Each structure stands twice: as C-alpha cells, then as structure tokens.
Amino acid sequence: xxxxxxxxxxxxxxxxxxxxxxxxxxxxxxxxxxxxxxxxxxxxxxxxxxxxxxxxxxxxxxxxxxxxxxxxxxxxxxxxxxxx
Amino acid sequence: xxxxxxxxxxxxxxxxxxxxxxxxxxxxxxxxxxxxxxxxxxxxxxxxxxxxxxxxxxxxxxxxxxxxxxxxxxxxxxxxxxxxxxxxxxxxxxxxxxxxxxxxxxxxxxxxxxxxxxxxxxxxxxxxxxxxxxxxxxxxxxxxxxx
Lengths: 84, 147
Hints:
heterodimer, A: mainly alpha, Non-ribosomal Peptide Synthetase Peptidyl Carrier Protein, Chain A, 5 helices, 0% strand, globular
C-alpha cells in the first residue's frame, strides 16, 4: 500500500468520528486527530480499534499514546505491518 | 471483590447514587437494580404535577450500575478505598421505550464491548419490574488509575 492509499484508508476510518468537516476535507499527513479533526479523545480509542481491524494489527499502549496525527498513525501502521 | 465492596467503592452518594444492589458481576458484564424513591428530588419538577423519572436519570442509572460498577470490578486489583480511579462519562446513545414512575424498581444489565486504553464501552439495557425494556443503548466511559 502506498502513502496515498494509506491516507485514503485512514480518512475512511476516521470519518464517523470527525466533528470538523473542513478538517476531514483537508486531511493530510500533518492533520492532528484532536486539534484539526476535533475527534473526542475517548473516540480516538475507537479510531485505533478500527485501525487494528482494518489492517489486522495489534496496537500496544505505547504506540497508542503516540498516535495523535495522521503521520504518526501511518508510521505505526507501516511498522506493525512490516513486523507481520 | 464482592458485589457489596464494589457498591461501597462507587464515587456517588445520595441524592445521586442510583445503585441499590449488584446481583451479578463478571469480566464481561454487570447486573444490578435500583428503586426510585417516591421523594427523589427530580420528581418535584419533572414534570409539574406529573412525576416521571427523567431520561437523563435513567441513563445515569444505567451508567452507574452497568459501566462504573463493571469498571471498578475490572480494575479490582489496583483499587483501594483511598486510591480511587478517575472516571469520566464519554458518550451515550440510548433509546427510551417506556416511562418509569416514582417507586418503580428497575434492573440494569450490561455487556462489555471492550475495555482498552482505559475506555470501557458497554451495551446496556434497563428493564422494569414486569421485565419490559425501559431503555437500551451504548454507553462509554474512561476509567483509569493513575498509579
């Protein structure tokens, strides 16, 4: 999966939890889940669980804490996929 | 941890404690009950001359019994009376199907969907004394222990 495809699938995953439609429209690598997309911090857990099932990976506590931007999520997904 | 110990650890007191008994508790869910006393404070204004239990109170009752009791049980190895976890209600989606009048006893049953990264999400339903569903839905909260 290339970078664009990964961003596109993350966009689909976060969609139900985003409270800022503009933020979703402008979503890119630098988007911050909480600041730019206005995702409720507790719903970030649901985003992460949805990422786990979409990519069939397990995200540990340490990675979860780092997963605050699209970029960080992409790095973690790529690392976890390479470990499979 | 006994069901009585769990009830004693709840961070609520009257007039905002809505859990009388906890009948069952496992890693996957909780079942408990509460009887709304005819003199509960909210009946004075909801509604004028026609007391009905407010939906927000039914929701709170489902959260206290179904989610907070379960959360306390799931953190049982870490909790002590002097070191309580932090709790916060984070989301709810509930449908209301029948009214609950003063003096009615309700039973709440919850099923854990997940407890990960400190977030506990449950399917919760409330039934009245004739076993009819009063309300049901999904409730989430964050429960964490800082030590």
